[in-house]
Amino acid sequence: MVNNPITRIFLILQVALLVTSCVAGSGGNQVSSSAVNRTTPTCIGVADCQAKMSAARNWVVNNTGFAIVVNSDDQIETGGWGIEDYTAIKVSRAPIGGNRYWIQLEINCGTDSSGPGFDGLGCPDSAGSALDFNIVVSSASQ
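RESULT FIELD:
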């Protein structure tokens, strides 16, 4: 359980930095980082968290094309981009207090996006993917 306010602030800043960097690097239709931050899924209690992590797992399988290499109650990771020991997609369940958790998506494209990406197109629109992930996972019910 993260009860330390400094740790909470650090987690919030980490998510904001990730989303901001992804938006800055994507072209075309840009999704704002505030839209992604506003929709970050949360869960409360065991049943709700299990339902939402299951939805997160399904989203990863259905939208990334990468094999899941870590699959636990708190974390989902895929390999990817043809680089050994590289995590392309990471979903983490992070405590925010009061038996509540954030479910956060991280998309890592690395420096070489010529490997297999979403639908073979290379690095995806990270912010757009994050927004879609957030909406799908948030709508999961127990």
